[in-house]
Specification:
The chain is α+β, with helices and mostly antiparallel strands. Helices cover about 55% and strands about 15% of the residues. The protein contains eleven helices and ten strands. α4 packs across α7 (about 230-265) and α7 (about 230-265) runs antiparallel to α10. Bound molecules: acetoacetyl-coenzyme A.
Length: about 375
């Protein structure tokens, strides 16, 4: 077993670390406060190759492994978890799904500009009545000649406002449950496609989330991804990888919480000494470090298994549920260590706690991850 990063992994760590510190961290508090989408930063991330890290270079990607991706996601999210989720959705949901399931024609048209970051993608599965119960959807795609006509509403779509292309899941054969769901790629400019207002969120406020409306949108049959009726299993298999991305985002938030806690506790003097001299503070810092290290090992194990083409969904769920809970605990303790100052908006400390919360919810709640883990155990162990 080798825990050393490769030269390539060290390089992406250094590049993303420097970018995060110099380009993302400075404006992160203001972007969160004013809900400003990080357009300039995302453009630079595209130039640096961060939007299609794992995609084969023949489709304009970086050709790196999933461990490199987790490292990059952690560093970006350490400075700005909003930029982290924009990157995560484009990489581990949209590009991954297209590279694995789309035809070469679709890859040429859509994957290439998405992997280079010239275009941005969104993944649109949830509906007002279907979140955790993802197959319980109403969006309908009816075949008419060489097109599908799509009607429906999707919600909580990350990147929904800024995306150029959207992966959409809709029913092509009603009445047969998940086997009637198919996946399509849709262009934002097509007639009948409309975008809802930006949601006003607790955290990751600089990223956009919205509803999408489809009113008789005419989609060429070439834009069906994978086979008809395979959409739901494609969505779940893709989410397995997405969960590694969100675990990495959570790790970034937790690591930022640890770093801020150490720095502040050494500066803040109470009762004539820095608060870091108190065991009550030291224990909190030690617990954060232990938990972050464990979450990082779990996340990299899931990434490694994916890179080895082994079944990794069980580990991805473990990594996501654990890393997101670590992020929540670390950021809450970070606020506690900062006291009144940490509770103030301008400190940027309470932002970590608000940003951490969503990692326990999107791309499958902690409860759904535990369900996936338990199902696997109950199936495999007699
Ligand atoms: N990979 C591939 N196929 C899978 C799979 C996986 N990981 N998990 C299950 N399947 C297959 C099953 O084998 C089954 O196929 P067959 O009938 O052919 O055997 C089919 O999918 C249905 O499986 P289940 O019966 O287990 O499905 P279920 O309805 O009980 O749901 C679930 C399972 C785990 C609860 C699933 O619905 C789930 O993960 N829900 C959470 C949804 C989610 O994560 N939503 C996130 C929204 S996207 C988002 O947040 C993005 C964003 O913008 C940031």
């Amino acid at each position: 077993m080798n825990f050393q990063l490769t030269e390539e992994q060290k390089l992406i760590q250094k590049t993303t670390q420097e970018f995060a510190d110099s380009e993302l961290a400075p404006g992160a508090i203001e972007r969160d406060e004013k809900k400003i989408w990080p357009r300039e930063a995302i453009n630079k991330m595209a130039e640096l190759g961060f939007m299609g890290i794992m995609v084969d270079p023949k489709w304009n990607g970086g050709g790196m492994d999933t461990i490199s991706y987790t490292i990059a996601m952690e560093e970006i999210s350490r400075a700005d978890a909003s930029a982290g989720v924009v990157m995560s959705v484009n990489n581990s949901l949209v590009c991954y799904l297209l590279e694995k399931y789309a035809s070469n024609t679709v890859k040429e048209t859509y994957l290439k500009p998405l992997a280079s970051g010239d275009k941005l993608g969104a993944f649109s599965l949830s509906e007002p009545q279907s979140g955790s119960d993802a197959s319980n959807m109403n969006a309908l795609a009816i075949k008419e000649g060489d097109h599908y006509i799509i009607n429906g509403t999707k919600n909580w779509v990350t990147n929904g406002i800024h995306a150029d292309y959207v992966l959409l899941f809709a029913i092509t054969t009603p009445g047969v449950g998940h086997k009637g769901i198919s996946c399509f790629i849709i262009e934002k400019e097509w007639d009948g496609f409309d975008i809802g207002k930006p949601e006003n969120k607790l955290g990751i406020r600089a990223s956009d989330t919205c509803e999408l409306y489809f009113d008789n949108v005419k989609v060429p049959e070439e834009n069906l991804i994978g086979k008809r009726g395979e959409g739901f299993t494609i969505a779940l298999a893709t989410l397995d990888g997405g969960r590694i991305g969100i675990a990495s985002q959570a790790l970034g938030i937790a690591q930022a919480s640890l770093k801020a806690s150490i720095t502040y506790s050494k500066e803040r003097v109470q009762f004539g000494k820095p608060i870091s001299a108190n065991q009550a503070i030291q224990y909190k810092i030690a617990d954060m470090a232990m938990e972050i290290e464990s979450a990082r090992l779990l996340t990299r194990k899931a990434a490694w298994m994916k890179d080895q083409h082994q079944s990794f969904g069980y580990y991805a769920s473990m990594a996501k549920v654990y890393a997101s809970e670590v992020a929540m605990r670390a950021s809450t303790q970070c606020v506690q260590i900062h006291g009144g100052y940490g509770y103030m908006r301008e400190s940027g400390i309470e932002r970590l706690m608000r940003d951490a919360k969503i990692t326990q919810i999107y791309e499958g709640t902690s409860e759904i991850q535990r369900l996936v883990i338990a199902r696997e155990l109950l199936q495999c162990i007699s």
